[in-house]
Amino acid sequence: MKIGYLGPPGTFTEEALLRTYTFPQDEAVPYASIPEVIEAVDRGEVERGIVAIENSIEGSVNVTLDVLAFDSEAKVIGEVIYPIRHNLLARSGLALVDIDTVISQPHATAQCRKYLAAHLSGAKIIAANSTAEAAQIVCTHPGNVAAIGTRIAAEIYGLEILAENIEDFQDNQTRFAILGKEVPPRTGFDKTSIICFIYQDRPGMLLQILQEFAYRYINLTKVESRPAKRSLGEYIFFIDMEGHIQDKVVDEAIKCVTCKIDRVKFLGSYPRFKVVK
After folding, report:
1. Could you tell me the Gene Ontology terms of the biological process aspect for this record (predicted)?
2. Whole-number Å distance between alpha carbons of 132 and 156
3. 87-163 adopts what CATH topology?
4. Is the pLDDT of residue 275 over 80?
5. To the nearest whole number, what is the mean pLDDT of the chain?
6. CA 166 to CA 123: how far, in whole Å?
7. Which residues are CB-contacts of 214 (< 8 A; sequence separation ≥ 6)?
8. Looking at the domain covering 190-271, what would its CATH class be?
9. What Rg, from alpha-carbon coordinates, does the chain have?
10. Residue 26 per-residue DSSP state
Protein backbone atom coordinates (compact mmCIF):
# COMPACT_ATOMS: atom_id res chain seq x y z
CA MET A 1 0.00 0.00 0.00
CA LYS A 2 1.48 3.32 -1.09
CA ILE A 3 0.94 6.39 1.10
CA GLY A 4 1.49 9.92 -0.19
CA TYR A 5 2.83 12.65 2.08
CA LEU A 6 4.20 16.20 1.89
CA GLY A 7 7.87 15.89 1.04
CA PRO A 8 10.75 15.87 0.52
CA PRO A 9 11.91 13.41 3.21
CA GLY A 10 12.30 15.01 6.63
CA THR A 11 8.96 16.82 7.01
CA PHE A 12 6.76 16.69 10.09
CA THR A 13 4.19 14.93 7.93
CA GLU A 14 6.67 12.13 7.26
CA GLU A 15 7.51 11.96 10.98
CA ALA A 16 3.81 11.60 11.85
CA LEU A 17 3.41 8.97 9.13
CA LEU A 18 6.37 6.87 10.27
CA ARG A 19 5.25 7.02 13.91
CA THR A 20 1.77 5.82 12.90
CA TYR A 21 2.40 3.10 10.31
CA THR A 22 5.00 0.38 9.88
CA PHE A 23 5.74 -0.39 6.23
CA PRO A 24 8.62 -0.56 3.75
CA GLN A 25 10.22 2.85 3.20
CA ASP A 26 9.60 2.79 -0.56
CA GLU A 27 5.83 2.70 0.01
CA ALA A 28 5.92 6.27 1.38
CA VAL A 29 5.69 8.59 -1.64
CA PRO A 30 6.72 12.27 -1.22
CA TYR A 31 4.87 15.04 -3.07
CA ALA A 32 5.85 18.70 -3.39
CA SER A 33 2.61 20.18 -2.01
CA ILE A 34 -0.53 19.30 -0.08
CA PRO A 35 -2.79 19.60 -3.16
CA GLU A 36 -0.56 17.13 -4.98
CA VAL A 37 -0.93 14.60 -2.15
CA ILE A 38 -4.72 14.87 -2.27
CA GLU A 39 -4.79 14.71 -6.07
CA ALA A 40 -2.66 11.53 -5.96
CA VAL A 41 -5.31 9.89 -3.77
CA ASP A 42 -8.06 10.98 -6.17
CA ARG A 43 -6.17 9.61 -9.18
CA GLY A 44 -5.38 6.31 -7.46
CA GLU A 45 -1.61 6.82 -7.59
CA VAL A 46 -1.55 6.09 -3.86
CA GLU A 47 -4.08 4.25 -1.70
CA ARG A 48 -3.63 6.65 1.21
CA GLY A 49 -2.52 10.21 1.77
CA ILE A 50 -1.60 12.10 4.91
CA VAL A 51 -1.97 15.89 5.11
CA ALA A 52 -1.86 18.45 7.91
CA ILE A 53 -5.34 19.78 8.62
CA GLU A 54 -5.09 21.72 11.90
CA ASN A 55 -2.46 23.11 14.28
CA SER A 56 -2.97 24.01 17.92
CA ILE A 57 -1.17 27.37 17.50
CA GLU A 58 -2.05 28.54 14.00
CA GLY A 59 -5.41 26.83 13.50
CA SER A 60 -6.61 25.15 10.33
CA VAL A 61 -4.43 24.51 7.29
CA ASN A 62 -6.58 26.37 4.78
CA VAL A 63 -5.15 24.79 1.63
CA THR A 64 -6.13 21.34 2.93
CA LEU A 65 -9.68 22.45 3.74
CA ASP A 66 -10.14 24.18 0.40
CA VAL A 67 -8.91 21.29 -1.73
CA LEU A 68 -11.07 18.80 0.17
CA ALA A 69 -14.08 21.09 -0.18
CA PHE A 70 -13.84 22.11 -3.83
CA ASP A 71 -11.42 19.91 -5.75
CA SER A 72 -11.46 16.41 -4.33
CA GLU A 73 -13.66 13.41 -3.60
CA ALA A 74 -11.15 11.89 -1.17
CA LYS A 75 -12.52 10.90 2.23
CA VAL A 76 -10.98 11.34 5.65
CA ILE A 77 -10.51 7.79 6.94
CA GLY A 78 -8.40 8.49 10.03
CA GLU A 79 -6.53 11.13 11.99
CA VAL A 80 -3.18 11.46 13.75
CA ILE A 81 -2.34 14.07 16.39
CA TYR A 82 1.40 14.60 16.54
CA PRO A 83 3.55 16.88 18.76
CA ILE A 84 5.51 19.44 16.75
CA ARG A 85 9.01 20.40 17.90
CA HIS A 86 10.68 23.03 15.74
CA ASN A 87 14.45 23.41 15.42
CA LEU A 88 16.63 26.09 13.84
CA LEU A 89 18.93 24.36 11.34
CA ALA A 90 22.01 25.74 9.58
CA ARG A 91 25.21 24.63 7.85
CA SER A 92 28.16 23.71 10.00
CA GLY A 93 30.22 26.72 11.05
CA LEU A 94 27.36 29.20 11.27
CA ALA A 95 26.26 30.64 14.61
CA LEU A 96 22.95 32.17 15.60
CA VAL A 97 24.39 35.71 15.34
CA ASP A 98 25.38 35.04 11.71
CA ILE A 99 21.87 34.25 10.47
CA ASP A 100 20.24 36.91 8.30
CA THR A 101 17.61 34.77 6.53
CA VAL A 102 15.22 32.10 7.78
CA ILE A 103 13.50 29.73 5.35
CA SER A 104 10.56 27.50 6.20
CA GLN A 105 6.96 26.60 5.52
CA PRO A 106 4.74 29.57 6.54
CA HIS A 107 2.86 27.62 9.22
CA ALA A 108 6.19 26.66 10.79
CA THR A 109 7.53 30.21 10.91
CA ALA A 110 4.20 31.41 12.34
CA GLN A 111 4.44 28.83 15.12
CA CYS A 112 7.87 30.27 16.06
CA ARG A 113 6.93 33.95 15.86
CA LYS A 114 8.02 34.83 19.41
CA TYR A 115 11.40 33.14 19.10
CA LEU A 116 12.12 34.82 15.77
CA ALA A 117 11.14 38.23 17.17
CA ALA A 118 13.39 37.76 20.22
CA HIS A 119 16.46 36.24 18.57
CA LEU A 120 16.30 36.97 14.82
CA SER A 121 14.27 40.16 14.60
CA GLY A 122 16.28 41.48 11.67
CA ALA A 123 16.25 38.26 9.66
CA LYS A 124 14.41 38.00 6.37
CA ILE A 125 11.71 35.30 6.32
CA ILE A 126 11.36 33.28 3.11
CA ALA A 127 8.59 30.74 2.45
CA ALA A 128 9.16 27.15 1.33
CA ASN A 129 6.64 24.43 0.45
CA SER A 130 7.70 22.38 3.46
CA THR A 131 10.15 22.41 6.35
CA ALA A 132 12.18 19.67 4.66
CA GLU A 133 12.39 21.65 1.42
CA ALA A 134 13.70 24.55 3.51
CA ALA A 135 16.40 22.30 4.99
CA GLN A 136 17.22 21.04 1.50
CA ILE A 137 17.72 24.63 0.29
CA VAL A 138 19.83 25.64 3.29
CA CYS A 139 22.26 22.72 2.96
CA THR A 140 23.56 24.06 -0.39
CA HIS A 141 22.91 27.79 0.08
CA PRO A 142 26.11 29.90 0.27
CA GLY A 143 24.61 32.62 2.47
CA ASN A 144 23.97 32.96 6.20
CA VAL A 145 20.64 31.18 6.07
CA ALA A 146 18.82 28.85 8.44
CA ALA A 147 15.77 26.64 8.20
CA ILE A 148 13.06 25.79 10.70
CA GLY A 149 12.57 22.06 10.55
CA THR A 150 12.75 18.62 12.10
CA ARG A 151 15.64 16.90 13.83
CA ILE A 152 15.50 14.17 11.18
CA ALA A 153 15.84 16.82 8.44
CA ALA A 154 19.07 17.99 10.08
CA GLU A 155 20.39 14.43 9.87
CA ILE A 156 19.25 13.89 6.28
CA TYR A 157 20.69 17.15 4.92
CA GLY A 158 23.82 17.38 7.09
CA LEU A 159 22.81 20.46 9.08
CA GLU A 160 23.52 21.50 12.65
CA ILE A 161 20.84 22.42 15.16
CA LEU A 162 21.47 25.99 16.32
CA ALA A 163 18.43 26.03 18.64
CA GLU A 164 15.86 23.39 19.51
CA ASN A 165 12.22 23.49 20.60
CA ILE A 166 11.76 27.05 19.36
CA GLU A 167 7.96 26.81 18.97
CA ASP A 168 6.00 29.50 20.84
CA PHE A 169 4.05 26.99 22.94
CA GLN A 170 5.37 23.68 24.27
CA ASP A 171 2.06 21.88 23.70
CA ASN A 172 2.25 22.56 19.96
CA GLN A 173 0.39 19.80 18.10
CA THR A 174 -0.77 19.22 14.54
CA ARG A 175 -3.70 17.07 13.53
CA PHE A 176 -3.10 15.15 10.32
CA ALA A 177 -5.89 13.66 8.21
CA ILE A 178 -5.44 10.22 6.68
CA LEU A 179 -7.15 10.22 3.27
CA GLY A 180 -8.58 7.37 1.21
CA LYS A 181 -11.71 6.51 -0.74
CA GLU A 182 -13.65 4.24 1.63
CA VAL A 183 -15.57 4.74 4.87
CA PRO A 184 -14.05 2.70 7.74
CA PRO A 185 -16.49 0.63 9.80
CA ARG A 186 -17.90 1.96 13.03
CA THR A 187 -15.66 1.45 16.09
CA GLY A 188 -17.71 3.17 18.80
CA PHE A 189 -15.04 5.87 19.18
CA ASP A 190 -15.47 7.77 15.94
CA LYS A 191 -15.67 11.19 14.36
CA THR A 192 -17.64 12.40 11.34
CA SER A 193 -16.76 15.40 9.18
CA ILE A 194 -19.09 17.28 6.84
CA ILE A 195 -19.11 20.56 4.89
CA CYS A 196 -22.25 22.70 4.77
CA PHE A 197 -22.65 24.90 1.67
CA ILE A 198 -24.94 27.87 2.36
CA TYR A 199 -25.35 30.05 -0.70
CA GLN A 200 -28.52 31.87 0.41
CA ASP A 201 -27.85 33.88 3.54
CA ARG A 202 -30.91 33.82 5.78
CA PRO A 203 -31.30 34.89 9.44
CA GLY A 204 -30.69 32.01 11.84
CA MET A 205 -29.45 29.60 9.14
CA LEU A 206 -26.38 28.47 11.07
CA LEU A 207 -28.47 28.13 14.23
CA GLN A 208 -30.93 25.87 12.40
CA ILE A 209 -28.03 23.63 11.34
CA LEU A 210 -26.49 23.42 14.80
CA GLN A 211 -29.86 22.71 16.44
CA GLU A 212 -30.15 19.42 14.54
CA PHE A 213 -27.08 18.19 16.41
CA ALA A 214 -28.03 19.76 19.74
CA TYR A 215 -31.47 18.11 19.65
CA ARG A 216 -29.78 14.72 19.34
CA TYR A 217 -27.04 15.42 21.91
CA ILE A 218 -24.32 15.07 19.29
CA ASN A 219 -21.12 16.75 20.45
CA LEU A 220 -19.52 19.00 17.83
CA THR A 221 -15.74 19.09 18.09
CA LYS A 222 -15.20 21.78 15.47
CA VAL A 223 -17.20 24.38 13.54
CA GLU A 224 -15.28 26.61 11.14
CA SER A 225 -16.18 28.86 8.23
CA ARG A 226 -14.28 29.33 4.97
CA PRO A 227 -15.07 31.54 1.95
CA ALA A 228 -17.34 29.83 -0.57
CA LYS A 229 -15.16 31.08 -3.49
CA ARG A 230 -18.16 32.77 -5.09
CA SER A 231 -18.65 36.30 -3.78
CA LEU A 232 -17.69 38.25 -0.69
CA GLY A 233 -19.83 37.32 2.31
CA GLU A 234 -20.65 33.75 1.17
CA TYR A 235 -19.26 30.97 3.33
CA ILE A 236 -19.13 27.24 3.79
CA PHE A 237 -18.93 25.57 7.20
CA PHE A 238 -16.74 22.64 8.20
CA ILE A 239 -18.29 20.62 11.03
CA ASP A 240 -16.64 17.77 12.94
CA MET A 241 -18.78 15.75 15.33
CA GLU A 242 -18.45 12.74 17.58
CA GLY A 243 -20.04 9.60 16.17
CA HIS A 244 -20.19 7.62 12.93
CA ILE A 245 -22.47 7.94 9.92
CA GLN A 246 -23.70 4.44 10.80
CA ASP A 247 -25.00 5.82 14.12
CA LYS A 248 -28.72 6.48 13.71
CA VAL A 249 -28.63 9.91 15.35
CA VAL A 250 -25.71 11.10 13.24
CA ASP A 251 -27.30 9.86 10.03
CA GLU A 252 -30.64 11.51 10.92
CA ALA A 253 -28.99 14.81 11.84
CA ILE A 254 -27.08 15.03 8.57
CA LYS A 255 -30.18 14.14 6.54
CA CYS A 256 -32.17 16.88 8.31
CA VAL A 257 -29.41 19.42 7.68
CA THR A 258 -29.35 18.40 4.01
CA CYS A 259 -33.05 19.31 3.73
CA LYS A 260 -32.38 22.84 4.99
CA ILE A 261 -29.42 24.05 2.93
CA ASP A 262 -28.01 24.02 -0.60
CA ARG A 263 -25.60 21.13 -0.16
CA VAL A 264 -23.91 18.93 2.43
CA LYS A 265 -20.66 17.22 1.50
CA PHE A 266 -19.78 14.15 3.53
CA LEU A 267 -16.03 14.16 4.24
CA GLY A 268 -15.88 10.90 6.14
CA SER A 269 -16.47 8.90 9.30
CA TYR A 270 -13.32 7.55 10.93
CA PRO A 271 -11.81 6.43 14.24
CA ARG A 272 -10.88 9.28 16.57
CA PHE A 273 -7.22 9.46 17.47
CA LYS A 274 -6.35 7.84 20.78
CA VAL A 275 -3.45 9.28 22.72
CA VAL A 276 -1.12 6.51 23.87
CA LYS A 277 0.34 7.32 27.29
Report:
1. L-phenylalanine biosynthetic process
2. 9
3. D-Maltodextrin-Binding Protein; domain 2 (3.40.190)
4. no
5. 93
6. 15
7. none
8. alpha beta
9. 20
10. G
